[in-house]
Please model this.
Amino acid sequence: MANDRGKSAVTVSIGGEDHVIRTNVEPEYTVRCAKWVDDRISEIKSQLGLIESHKAAILAALSITDELFQAQAEAAGLRTNGAARAEALAMKLELVLNQQEHLALNGEGEGDG
Model:
């Protein structure tokens, strides 16, 4: 298949079932992703007791998606905060530079004495 160039097959276990995943990323990364999903499914099953596998998978997907959205919101907040801090620092730096320029132009601070 032309679309399979550069892809490797990785066998992972999710929810007690083995799955062969074709991927173009490092196999270890795919295994880590699968383990994350499998761990979340196991966590949900242990919390809720007997639950059908597909329902546990749906709840795991929702839980992981919630985690992703919260991380994205936090990252956006950090970017916004970082940009605001950078702008404030730039304004302070500009003020100090303007003050230094003003002093230099007026001959102030040149040890007259």
Remarks:
- The helical segments are 27-48, 53-105.
